[in-house]
From TrEMBL:
<protein>
    <submittedName>
        <fullName>Transcriptional regulator</fullName>
    </submittedName>
</protein>
<dbReference type="InterPro" id="IPR000551">
    <property type="entry name" value="MerR-type_HTH_dom"/>
</dbReference>
<dbReference type="GO" id="GO:0003677">
    <property type="term" value="F:DNA binding"/>
</dbReference>
<dbReference type="Pfam" id="PF13411">
    <property type="entry name" value="MerR_1"/>
</dbReference>
<dbReference type="InterPro" id="IPR047057">
    <property type="entry name" value="MerR_fam"/>
</dbReference>
<keyword id="KW-0238">DNA-binding</keyword>
<feature type="domain" description="HTH merR-type">
    <location>
        <begin position="10"/>
        <end position="79"/>
    </location>
</feature>
<dbReference type="InterPro" id="IPR009061">
    <property type="entry name" value="DNA-bd_dom_put_sf"/>
</dbReference>
<dbReference type="GO" id="GO:0003700">
    <property type="term" value="F:DNA-binding transcription factor activity"/>
</dbReference>
């Protein structure tokens, strides 16, 4: 860990990899496609990530977990960089993602109910005579 000042800690790309589980290749790619805000560099050109960068990466991880496309994540990052006047656009992007997540949760709950039914049926030994059903 490299301290840039008394109040601001900076992390090398290796440290960020260890903390986040993201590979160095992924971190560089995020920066290249505009998903990461400007990452500071040391005098020798090495990336130096801040705590704010780590928080952003955690948020991006949550967006990835929702199934949000990379294009939408990059668009969201662009909107953040553009400033406060984009709050409504950011909210709409997140609301759309939330609707999609809720729809997937509903689908998964339906699939889970079918699995529970079949598991219960097998556990009770009630499969006899039902050879035509999966």
């Amino acid at each position: 860990m490299v301290a840039m000042s008394l109040t601001e800690t900076r992390y090398t790309i290796s440290e960020v990899e260890a903390r986040t589980g993201l590979t160095q290749h992924t971190l560089r790619w995020y920066e290249r496609i505009g998903l990461m805000p400007h990452v500071d560099r040391s005098h020798s050109g090495q990336r130096r990530f801040s705590d704010r960068d780590l928080h952003w990466l955690a948020f991006v991880g949550k967006l990835r977990a929702t199934g949000m496309s990379v294009a939408d994540m990059v668009r969201y990052a662009e909107l953040v960089r553009e400033g406060e006047h984009t709050v409504d656009q950011r909210r709409e992007l997140l609301e759309q993602t939330r609707r999609e997540v809720r729809a997937r949760i509903t689908e998964l709950n339906d699939a889970l109910a079918v699995l529970d039914f079949k598991i219960d049926m097998y556990a009770k030994g009630t499969t006899a005579g039902k050879a035509t059903r999966p």
